Amino acid sequence: QVQPVESGGGLVQPGGSLRVSCVISERMFRLRTMAWYRQAPGKQRELVARISSGFGTNYVDSVKGRFTISRDNAKNTVYLQMNSLKHEDTAVYYCNSADNWGGPIGPWGQGTQVTVSS
Questions:
Q1: What tens digit of pLDDT does each residue of 78-97 get?
Q2: Which of 12, 61, 63, 111 is the most exposed place for a label (fewest CB within 10 A)?
Q3: Paired residues of 104 in beta bridges
Q4: Where are the beta strands (DSSP E) in 61-110?
């Protein structure tokens, strides 16, 4: 496969939790920083979290303490555990390989929709 394949999105109430997953080709995953991005309606796509090949992590301030990014190198898969979800977390979530500045490297997948609503 060339494009990442994201899954796990859905509808969740405020304060709830959700875990999204992304499978990507070994060529785009191995020894690369992986990142999650999101795009809310009417807004630009933004970097949410990234994890290096050495498992170092960084988060945008708005999700610190609530979201956790992780990776499974044996499965070429990156995860985003989202807790204490808020309305403003509603967006389509995408994963991608990332450069040193958090910029996306490869093609985009379809993303997975996360909707936080009561």
A1: 999 999 999 999 999 999 99
A2: 61
A3: 98
A4: 67-72, 77-82, 91-98
Q: Would you say 36 and 93 are in contact if contact means Cβ atoms under 8 Å apart?
A: yes
| C-alpha dist (Å) from residue 13 to 24, 64, 108 | 29, 19, 27
Which of 116, 104, 84 lies closest to 3, judged by CA?
104
Token pair of 89, please? 């977390």
Q: How long is the chain?
A: 118
| Cα 44 from Cα 38, distance rounded (Å) | 8
Query: Measuring CA to CA, which residue among 22, 20, 9 is closest to residue 95?
Result: 22
CA 67 from chain centre, in angstroms, equals 10
- Residue 104 CA: distances (Å) to CA of 13, 14, 22, 83: 30, 29, 14, 25
Sign of CA dihedral 32, 58, 68, 82: negative
